[in-house]
Task: structure prediction
Amino acid sequence: MLNEAWRGAGSGGSDASPPGIAAALQHYAVAADQPVVVVSRPRDPAALEVARVRWANSAAADLFGVAAADLVDLAVTRLLPPDPEGAPPRERLSRERRSRYSVEVVTSGGVRRGTEVVAWPVPDQPARPGPGTSREEHYWVVTVAAPGDERAQAAVRAAEQRFATLAQSSPVATIVSDVGARLSRVNEAFAALLGLPAEQLCGTAWLAHVVDDERAGVVEAVARVLSGERVVLDTRLRNAAGQVRWVTVRLAPSQTPGYGAGFVGTVEDVTDRLAREHRLAYQAQHDLLTGLPNRLALLERLADLLAAPAEAAADPLADLRASTGAPPAAGAPARSRTGVLMVDLDDFKTVNDGLGPEAGDAVLVEVARRLSRTVRGADMVARPGGDEFVLVCHDLADLEAVEATARRVLDAVLAPVEVNGLRLRLVASIGVVLLDGLACSAEEVVRDAGIAVHEAKAAGGGRWALLDEEVRQRARRALRLVADLREALARGAIDVHYQPIVRPGRPARLVSVEALCRWNHPELGPVDPQTFIDLAERANLVPALDAHVLSVACRDLAAWRAAHAAGELPHVPGWVAVNVSAVSLSADDFAAGVRRAVAAAGLQLSDVCLEVTETALASDLRACRTVLEELRRDGARVAIDDFGTGYSSLAYLKDLPVDHLKVDRSFVRDLDAAPATTRGAAPGGPARAVAAAVVSLARTLGLDVVAEGVETFAQDEVMTDLGCEAVQGWLYSRPLTRGALVEVLRGGGTLAARPVAPAPAGGQLPSPRGVPA
Ligand code: C2E
Ligand code: CA
Ligand code: CA
Result:
């Protein structure tokens, strides 16, 4: 089809489409319905002779009244005789520019017809000439506008004019080429982009503003557009001030009657957008506070490392050596590994809560700086979040190298940090996972490192722990236990026991009870409450657990009340105390949940006492206070649990909405570790003095005091002497099953004191902590 449009030498039809500009010429001629001929003349000035026709299209054949094939090889002067007034046509064939002139052409019948002729040079094609073209020749495309075309020409000119006006006022940088790579027009926006007057950018001068290493790409793109393609390319221009601007250039081919194949393009300055995108890409991968790679970047790096073959890290030249039969490098470690060290600051929360978030940030930035200095160039320090940092360290030859690295990190953290004029000493715990040979995901590596950190903290903090098989097994058991606990909670299989709180005396009388959760695991048997509460905390199950215990306790109290009213039980607890952990308390729907549980059992808020630890209160004082104040206003009792072990200061205690203080059993326990009586000293020694201070503090504030963990007569005596209204402890009763408690109530709620055998020296707590093996 292409070649059919051409009649002439060399258009044999077997050739594939010619590249670049030759192809553009063919397109042009196919599209043009006006006469087009291509002429050439030898390059060699010595052989300079008259230009001859090389190709002609059918419109040209019609104009001249001959077959197109017969036009080929004709001297141009035969068709375009010298203009009597102007220069001969040969001299009009400029290599530099398009030339346009009016001339009379001679048809086959010898008729002369006035025409408008445009001749434009075809850029020389050094690489590969198109079909029928020769490297030895210069080529021109000559278009001839036949008479009678004036109206059409005027219409084209008007359209051009409209376009020019539009482009000129457009804020989009626009460039127009009538032919080849030369720009014939540019608008103000393009001139402004380069900071040069428009005239200076016409011709091929604009290419000089493409930065050197992009120029070949731009020339190639222009060649493609001239051959009829639409092209979009990103490239860089240098403006008059020497700044490099990133631009997106969109080029569309155009045909200008009388001129030839050119293009219209827009040039969009995307420098600022790219900078913004670059910034966003940076932010997606970095922690903005410390500038360290963030969790995403860490996971990507770990995923890459896990995907890489394990041996590659050991000896980078191993493959090469193997292929050349060379022995392994002398002194190379047998197997070098990559270690992932998770560094977690112990007690960072205290810094943050105590000194404020700005101080916390300053500490994190300082730690980030120190950690970055402890690792080598190829290693990574990331901050996945919070007070956690992760180091990825390569080439750890053996376990000693791992230990040395961990020690370096611990020491780096340990050096005092100055914040707000305070010298703080930070301590970190480190969990280590070795990557080599691991078949797991990046997330699992981070999770395992977290488990190892937990292990290091459980061992006292300020140390490092390697995630070995034993730890992994233990973590796996803990995970299973969490799943079982979740399931037990869903089934309502968590039981509640009740420990009497008594008014001391002989006999003592039950005042209220504390509800304590119990879990009898189908395979493991009873699980220590503190153990599974810790697990529940980590799995965010505590609010569900607390709610469950509260509703069971309310139902039970309502049932005892009903039995009492029916005359079946002579005595009932005045209220039931439940434990409320910090997470439960800070949940938005906590107060509503308490009201619902109480109402569902047909009780009043005054039938429950909420036991809250000082630590829970301290963590979010204002929010806790609002919730507790509101419930207390409507009758609920509030007790501070484990009093004396937290951060209580008088200043805030006096403002708290609280009714009872439960003195922690650690104060009570020591009461009989001291000599019973020495001359001049009160019974109980210094422990008594501490207990006395705590009780008198509570009394000053007008609060009821409950002594916890009372096991012996001596403890009971001291605490009652000091003025405790109530006592809770094994001396009177252990936590009881529902049935056992009902027996006590049936007996009128009196309890005989039965002392517990004295604890071994050092006063060990009875419930062992930690995950059961
Ligand atoms: P707690 O609130 O201080 O509860 C009192 C704990 O002291 C109970 O331990 C109780 O069995 C124990 N205890 C009472 N008298 C004595 C004594 O004379 N000597 C000794 N050595 N221990 C005594 P338990 O049942 O193991 O509960 C431990 C902790 O678990 C509780 O401490 C409480 O903080 C938490 N807990 C128990 N039930 C719940 C619950 O439903 N929700 C929440 N959030 N925590 C609960
Ligand atoms: Ca309690
Ligand atoms: Ca307690």
Notes: DSSP finds 28 helices and 28 strands in the chain. Residues 499, 516-517, 529-530, 533, 542, 545-546, 549, 579, 581, 611, 641-642, 665, 709-711, 728-730, 735, 765-767 surround C2E (ligand 1) (CB under 6 Å). The first strand starts at residue 6 and ends at 7. The two ends are 85 Å apart (CA to CA).
